[in-house]
Amino acid sequence: MPEKNVAAVLRGVRLLHQVCDAIERFGEDILGPAGQWLKVAGRHKTTVLSKAMKACPTGGSILEIGTYCGYSALRMAMTLPGARVVSLEVDPAHMVIARNMVAYAGLAHMIDIWTGHSKDVLPRLPRKYGGRHNFKLCGVFMDQKGSRYHEDLSVIEQLGLLLPGAVVVADNVLKPGSPLFLWRLCKGQSYDNHVVRVREFAMPSDDWMSVSVLRAEAAQAFAEASVDSPVVEKAKGISPVGNWPVAPEELIQLQWESDRIRAQATRPGSGSVSFDEWAKYASNMKEKMALHGIVETADAANLEEGAELWSAT
């Protein structure tokens, strides 16, 4: 989405709730009717994200990978008042917009936005906050390129940053999709997982969000095997890089297809992806992942207030 579209929602907003409401209205009332998509986790996705963050253990920070315009960072800060939100954004223009959005909302003292590629910034974050023994994460929200989800999570695990019971939420795991990340979670033994069906924000199409709670024994194993730089190490049989079966060839192909359509969707002009094409793509992804045991386990539309779907075992 062009920066001018994101910047437009800055006009006329001052208070925290007004910032988030303005972003949602911009996506639904301006871009949606024009067949364009504002990539924020609004409406049903906000419900899932907020409920998941409320289940986070106390005493840690929240890490977001993929700031975009700052919407989700603000929502998480509202959900967990007093928790520091550390957000990474690869696009410098989006970073500037998000910092201004956060400043307008009055939360610049609680939300830090860093710019750079996650593979470069993640290993350096602990040193920015007093070392990895002082920088612990109670929650993670992944909203970057889906084919990086499993790689970035491995780095976080290897650094030993996750608290027991930490909640890891990932958006867009159906469309454009993150098949290898879902395979890793569903076939591994480190997390209790839910795949939640959601209605895509400002688009007539389904999507999935994954919500994963780190088991206490896995958190301990990661901490004991943690290193200052992300290298491959095993952690008492619970390895951040190798405790699940090799992914089937079809899922590797689906990962390639997700990158292809993601690149097409960000292409300016008439070469983008229509809402109808997105819906067909999501249906195909759902059908093919189901063949490998990856299916939705909850529906955001049916979540009751206070429901606890993601408590660790």
Our count of domains comes out at 1
The average pLDDT score comes to 83
What helical percentage do the residues reach? Answer: 40-55%
List the strand order in the largest sheet.
3-2-1-4-5-7-6-8
CATH secondary-structure class: Alpha Beta
Query: What is the chain-wise order of helices and strands?
Result: HHHEHEHEHHEHEHHEEHHHE
- Could you name the ranges where pLDDT drops below 50 across 5 or more consecutive residues? 231-242
Return the structural class: alpha/beta
CATH topology, by name, is Rossmann fold
**Rounded radius of gyration (Å):** 18 Å
Number of helices: 13
Main sheet characteristics: 8 strands, mixed
Number of strands: 8
User: What is the quaternary state of this protein?
Assistant: single chain
Residue fraction in strands:
15-25%
What is the terminal-to-terminal distance? 40 Å
CATH homologous superfamily? Vaccinia Virus protein VP39
Report the CATH architecture.
3-Layer(aba) Sandwich
Shape: globular
Family: Belongs to the class I-like SAM-binding methyltransferase superfamily. Cation-dependent O-methyltransferase family.
GO biological process, one term: catecholamine metabolic process
Pfam families: Methyltransf_3
GO molecular function, one term: catechol O-methyltransferase activity
